[in-house]
């Protein structure tokens, strides 16, 4: 892979993998088949792109770095099933891309995501409802937050949000030493198995997430105090908690996604 003269850009969170065995393992665990359409985010120098494009029907590779894009085009010019887009994934019209390049069919995502913008990218992908599954290399700490259990210090809004749209699976960890340049933290390959339907019923999705965010707004506060930020009469909050069998002195981080859904639905009904 030709990389002579290229310098990784810290501001773009560029950390590359060159180990062929690790790259193959990532592509294998992404389970990309010959009939799969794939979006890759942060294609970089194309080391992982090459593994994906050899397995997939079609690949759209996003890369924001102009210099890296030129290397990508040069190194992978033989692959006719690869479309390279010099664009920011956060500004991308995913529906337009899927319609244009994949005939509107749902696709898979494989990516080595930059640490500084991991969560916004994950939520953009999940909220698009265009993905079959998402296999991403992310900071280990973020992967632990996504897979956290109620009551743990890692459990939070991100946990609830990702588990509302998908079933996450941690695949394997990677130490800093396998990357170039070497980051300060370890990474984890995680797969988000996108759900056809959320695991819980909510009467109003926007209000559900409003309740979740309020509950985690001040983690040390009991839930009756945390929910004051909803600007709903306190008597309604107290009655809703009672109906759901939630102790007034509980903290939001102890509630499961099922309990959050129940609480949000009860409050929503009461305030309508």
Automatic annotation (TrEMBL):
It holds the Pfam family RrnaAD. One of its GO terms (molecular function) is 16S rRNA (adenine(1518)-N(6)/adenine(1519)-N(6))-dimethyltransferase activity. Transmembrane segments: none annotated. Its EC number is 2.1.1.182. SUPFAM superfamilies: S-adenosyl-L-methionine-dependent methyltransferases. S-adenosyl-L-methionine binds at residues 15, 17, 42, 63, 88, 112. PROSITE patterns: RRNA_A_DIMETH (PS01131), SAM_RNA_A_N6_MT (PS51689). It comes from the Bacteria. It is found in: Cytoplasm. InterPro entries: KsgA/Erm, rRNA_Ade_diMease-like_C, rRNA_Ade_Mease_Trfase_CS, rRNA_Ade_methylase_Trfase_N, rRNA_adenine_dimethylase, SAM-dependent_MTases_sf. Coiled coil: none annotated. It catalyses: adenosine(1518)/adenosine(1519) in 16S rRNA + 4 S-adenosyl-L-methionine = N(6)-dimethyladenosine(1518)/N(6)-dimethyladenosine(1519) in 16S rRNA + 4 S-adenosyl-L-homocysteine + 4 H(+). Keywords: Cytoplasm, Methyltransferase, RNA-binding, rRNA processing, S-adenosyl-L-methionine, Transferase. Residues 22-196 form the Ribosomal RNA adenine methylase transferase N-terminal domain. Belongs to the class I-like SAM-binding methyltransferase superfamily. rRNA adenine N(6)-methyltransferase family. RsmA subfamily. NCBIfam families: ksgA. Specifically dimethylates two adjacent adenosines (A1518 and A1519) in the loop of a conserved hairpin near the 3'-end of 16S rRNA in the 30S particle. May play a critical role in biogenesis of 30S subunits. This is Ribosomal RNA small subunit methyltransferase A. It comes from Thermoanaerobacterium butyriciformans. The gene is rsmA.
């Amino acid at each position: 892979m030709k990389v002579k003269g290229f310098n990784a850009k810290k501001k773009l969170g560029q950390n590359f993998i060159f180990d062929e065995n690790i790259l193959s393992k990532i592509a294998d665990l992404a389970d990309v088949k010959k009939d799969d359409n794939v979006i890759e985010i942060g294609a970089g120098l194309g080391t992982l792109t090459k593994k994906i494009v050899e397995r997939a029907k079609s690949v759209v590779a996003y890369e924001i770095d102009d210099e890296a894009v030129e290397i990508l085009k040069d190194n992978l010019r033989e692959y006719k099933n690869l479309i390279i887009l010099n664009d920011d994934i956060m500004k991308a019209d995913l529906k337009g891309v899927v319609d244009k390049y994949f005939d509107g069919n749902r696709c898979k995502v494989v990516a080595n995501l930059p640490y500084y913008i991991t969560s916004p990218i994950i939520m953009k992908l999940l909220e698009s409802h265009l993905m079959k599954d998402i296999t991403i290399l992310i900071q280990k700490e973020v992967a632990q937050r996504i897979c956290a259990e109620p009551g743990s210090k890692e459990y939070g809004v991100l946990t609830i949000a990702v588990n509302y749209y998908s079933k996450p699976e941690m695949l394997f960890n990677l130490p800093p030493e396998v990357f170039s340049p070497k980051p300060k933290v370890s990474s984890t390959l995680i797969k988000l198995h996108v759900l056809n339907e959320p695991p819980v019923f909510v009467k109003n999705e926007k209000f559900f997430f409003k309740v979740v965010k309020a509950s985690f707004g001040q983690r040390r506060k009991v839930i009756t105090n945390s929910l004051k930020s909803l600007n709903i009469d306190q008597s309604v909050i107290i009655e809703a908690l009672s109906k759901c069998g939630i102790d007034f002195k509980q903290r939001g981080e102890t509630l499961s996604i099922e309990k959050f859904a129940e609480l949000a639905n009860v409050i929503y009904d009461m305030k309508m």
